[in-house]
Amino acid sequence: MNKKKMIRLTALVGVATATGVVAEANQAHAATTTTTETTNQTTNASVESTQAAVDAAQSTFDTAQTSVDSAQANVTSASNNVTSASAALSSAIANKEAATSENIASATSAVSSQAVVVASASQAVSEQAGVVSAAASVQASAQAEVTSASASLSSSSANVASATSALSAAEAALTSDQSTAANNLSAAESAASSASAAVSSDQAAVDNAQAAVASAQAIVDAVAEVQSSDVINMSVAYITALKNYLANPSSANAAALQEVAKGADYVKELQQKFKSDASLDVVVDPSDPTVQEALSVYAVNLINHLRNQYGLTTAFGASANANVAAIDFVKKYYDDEDWNIFGTTGSDGKGHNKNGLDAYADQLNTSIAEDAGSGLTTWVNGKATMATTTLHNLLYAVYSDIATMLFDDGGTNNWSHAQSIFEDGTILGTDGFNNVYLGVAFDKYGYAHYELYNATEGNHLGNNAYSLDVQTAAQALLTNAQASLASAKASLQRMTTNLMVAKAAVVAAQNQLAALENSSANDLVAVTKARTQLASAETSYQTALATYKQKEEALKKAGDNLAAAQASLEAAQATLATAKAKLAELEETVANLTNADQLLAAAQAAYEQAVANLTTATGNLGAAQVDLAKAESQLALAEDTAEQAKVRDAIAAQVDQQLNGSTANDRQSAGQDATSLKTNGRALTATVATASAAKQKQGANQGRLPQTGNDDQEASTMALVGLGMLGMATGLYGYKKRKLTK
Q1: Which stretches within 8-100 are classed as H helix?
Q2: 3-state secondary structure of 560
Q3: Residues 26 and 674 sit within 8 Å (Cβ to Cβ)
Q4: How distant, in Å, are the alpha carbons of 277, 620, 693, 696 from that of 690?
Q5: 535-586, pLDDT tens digit by residue?
Q6: Using CA of residue 275, residue 281, residue 286, residue 288, what is the dihedral sign?
Q7: How many other C-beta atoms are found inside a 10 Å radius of the C-beta of residue 703?
Q8: Which of 322, 362, 503, 527 has the fewest CB atoms nearer than 10 Å to its CB?
Q9: Distance of alpha carbon 216 from its chain centroid, rounded?
Q10: How far apart are CA 640 and CA 9, in angstroms?
Q11: Is it the case that residue 132 has pLDDT exceeding 80?
């Protein structure tokens, strides 16, 4: 529905001049009162009459608006009907043009063919319905078998529960003393078994400790002789040649040194001087702290003896901290990284892990140099084989490596191993080796690593220093072994005592159980019987369970078959529905072609009727809009008249209030009142003029509407109140606007 806004402006009523107001004010008080009452009655009646006219005009306007809305809806509907009828007419014309005998014959033939398709699809639906019915019968039978198997399973489960309860009752019938005795016997036997195992374990520990003591004693007996005999002595000529070469590594000095050293043959000669003692053929762990101490002290003593021959007074040291650092470095940068320094043939290895050395030097904040040797491997036909790890092998590996570094280190190494042994304050040209401590470690491939650290107060590598007396290290090994033997013997003694106590407890428990079993034979028979019944019930339950699972699987298969048959039936039904729809479409085509003339005539008539209906609806809408415009104009006129009546009513009320305030004693000052009223009239007239000017500006281009009511009565009333009261009333009530929205 369209919305409209109407703004109505109320016109001011013409009034008498100020002179007329003064003349009327000079009338007697009684006469004035009478005139005021008459005016009030007149204005009140006018307000009520004009408001009734407004209400009637509003009602007429609303009715007209409703008529317009209804007529507009009819026009819209009629227009839509014309559009639909036009489309139907076009379709009927096209159908008429297509209604040839050939097309009708072709469409009729298509109907016949499609009828055959429908009949075939209908037959397929019937056949598949039979398949579904058969599958449903099989499924129902399988469901019945599952129900029966489930009942049998429930019965078997109940039998198991009953047998279990009977067994519990039979077992409860046994005296608590017998149960306690059996538990005591079991606990005693378990304790005896544990005690026996502990004794066996401790006996093995004692045997191992005794063997370790024997080995340590052998080491102590032999190590003093090894320490004194396993030294490497250099000739004066070799020392001189080595000093010359290290001072000036020229080709001539290198050749002279190689000549004096006599190459690999002299190394073999030195290796043959190693003291071999049967007491050293004991298996040891290379990472054992005591063995580590012995190896590092042995190596440092060999090196310091060489440095003394060379003329150096500063000696290398050995410490537990340096050994721990060497083991940690080799594990992290050789074992964990699978870094084979020599490889499998001695020529295919990776060499020193230089990145690892740099990283570890940064970690310890010190300088590190590394020498490496064949260690525990013996070179046979160019292949490395791991030797047995005995103390003899370890000491020989250290001795052989240091000897090889002195006399068989030519070629690409340029005697760098010998240089690392005989330099003072530097190693291989690197400063910062003023307090060298040696750590020895073996990697997982069997190769030996000799790590040279510069020890400082900050890195603590010199802490926990070893005595360089090998005898002291060997004696520590013996002391530790003896302490381990004493501890093992004490533990064995405790476990032997515990075993004796446990065996006595087993005998006592057996005797108690035997005595109780003789007095409760019947209860034991009942328990045995109950156990047999329970086993039988459990067997029956398992059989019933297997049958139930079998039937349940058959039911699932039958359900799957039924679902598949139903799916096939639905597919056949869908095919039939499609065929029927196609047949109906073809039949409709035949009917349309056959009845083309009648359909065209009907469509033409419907179209013409729709056009006629639209014409009628359009005319009705125009008439309703004319009526709405008239009602709108009448409503505006009635509202303006009502507004003017309200203004006159307000002015009359104000005059009555002022005039009724005078008394008989005030009449002598009537002339003064007239003068004052005249003055006030001029002031109020000025006020009215200002308001009128504003109203004129606000209502520009608005036409003055015609006045309503009794002109004589209105003039008489306004003559009494004057132009001043009109201005006052306007100030009190303001200017009103009426808005109508539809």
Answers
A1: 18-25, 29-98
A2: helix
A3: yes
A4: 141, 50, 5, 10
A5: 998 899 999 899 999 989 999 999 999 999 999 999 999 999 999 999 999 9
A6: negative
A7: 8
A8: 362
A9: 63
A10: 7
A11: yes
Residue 562: both structure tokens together: 């039924």
pLDDT at 463: 95
Helix (H, G, I), strand (E, B) or coil at 442: strand
Q: Which pLDDT band, with edges at 50, 70 and 90, does 467 fall under?
A: confident
Q: What is the CA radius of gyration of the chain?
A: 65
Q: Are 643 and 15 contacting, i.e. CB atoms less than 8 angstroms apart?
A: no
Q: How many residues does the chain have?
A: 742
The Cα–Cα gap between 414 and 407 comes to: 11
Helix (H, G, I), strand (E, B) or coil at 427: strand
CA distance 623 to 710: 34
Distance CA 436, CA 367 (A): 10
Contact 662, 676 (CB under 8 A): no
Say how far apart CA 44 and CA 8 lie, in whole Å.
Answer: 23
| Under 8 Å between Cβ of 606 and 83 | no
Residue 385 in contact with residue 378, Cβ under 8 Å?
A: yes
Round to whole Å and give the CA distance between 186 and 326: 53
Q: What is the mean pLDDT of residues 243-257?
A: 89
DSSP state of 704: P
What number of other Cβ atoms are within 10 A of residue 110's Cβ? Answer: 17
**Separation CA 313–CA 670 (nearest Å):** 149
Q: Give the residue among 364, 566, 391, 519 at the shortest CA–CA distance from 452.
A: 364
Q: How far apart are CA 14 and CA 19, in angstroms?
A: 15
State the pLDDT at residue 517: 61
pTM equals: 0.41
First CA to last CA distance, the chain = 8
Distance from the Cα of residue 315 to its chain's centroid? 64
* Average pLDDT of the chain to the nearest whole number: 78
> Are the C-beta atoms of residues 427 and 369 closer than 8 Å to each other?
yes
Q: Can you tell me the distance from the alpha carbon of 149 to that of 550, in angstroms, rounded to the nearest whole number?
A: 9
Determine whether 355 is exposed, middle or buried from the number of CB atoms within 10 Å of its CB (0-12, 13-18, 19+): exposed
